[in-house]
Structures are given as C-alpha cells and as structure tokens.
Design goal:
By secondary structure, this protein is mainly alpha-helical. It has seven helices and no strands.
C-alpha cells in the first residue's frame, strides 16, 4: 500500500499541466487488463476538474431520482441513489487516499477547497426534501417488500443517513 502511495505521489508531482481532455478520470476505458485507473497518468491538476465534473454529474443524477414521477421503489430510488455519483466516488477514493499519505502545501490547499465543495454538495443532498420523501416512502413499506439482507441494510442505512 505504501508503495502505491509513493507511486501516486511521484506521478502527481512529476509532470507539467495536462489538458483537461487528457484527464484520466474522464476516460471511458483505461485500456489495461483490469480496467483500473492508470495512476501513472494522474496529475495534481486533474483533481479539481474531475471533482467539479463529478459534483455536477452527481447533482444531475440526484435531481433525476428526486423528480422521478413513478412511485418510489427500491430500484428507482434506493438502488439508483446507491449507483449515483460514480465519477465523484472514483475521484474521491484516489484523492483522499493520496491526502491520507501525503502532506504537501499544494495538496493541502486543494484539500481545503475540495472539502468545502464536498460539504456544500453533501448538504444539498441531505436537505433535498423530494429525495427524502422518496426514500421515506420506500422505507415505510420495507416490511412489505421482498428485499435481500443486503438490500434491506442499504435501505435502512440510506434512510438513517438522512
């Protein structure tokens, strides 16, 4: 794990600015055997555009779930919410792993900016009344639903997180 952190940091600190179009977080496929993010291509300047795009995508996904006119179900509300925000999740996982192991001034300044954005984004979701109404509607009928143990746990965790 420590080697991975060292590799990530050496890569992040090694290059000049790369155009947003070359941002590896935006690739549809990575072209390696396990389709994993090519850490050797990630640069520090890739994070902010990736977070911004991730926040915007996630916000659109949340709005679509909250505005869904169909009756709330586990699939169209809870599962949809669980699957939302994939880019944001991917970027966050790499970024927070990196900040957990590295402490440069540039990285800490970026972390401060991103933390403020993350808080605002999370608050917007937590305070989304139409979204919570859908979650609550599914939660209130949980005993009548045929859910697996995992689905029930996800439903309960989602409800309790609001």
């Amino acid at each position: 794990m420590r080697i991975l952190h060292l590799i990530i940091m050496s890569v992040l600190l090694s290059g000049a600015t790369v155009a947003t179009a070359a941002n590896p977080f935006f690739a549809k496929k990575y072209g390696n055997p396990h389709e994993t993010l090519p850490f050797d291509k990630v640069k520090l300047e890739h994070f902010m555009p990736a977070f911004e795009k991730g926040f915007a995508q996630h916000e659109r996904e949340i709005k679509a779930i909250a505005a869904n006119k169909a009756l709330p179900t586990f699939d169209n509300t809870i599962a949809a919410l669980d699957y939302s925000g994939q880019l944001l999740h991917d970027v966050s996982a790499v970024f927070y792993t990196l900040t957990g192991s590295e402490n440069t001034d540039e990285l800490m300044a970026l972390s401060t900016r991103i933390s403020a954005m993350q808080t605002a984004h999370s608050n917007k979701i937590s305070l989304n009344e139409p979204l919570f109404s859908r979650i609550k509607a599914v939660y209130d009928q949980r005993d009548a639903l045929t859910l697996s143990v995992e689905q029930r746990k996800l439903l309960e965790d989602t409800y309790e997180s609001f």
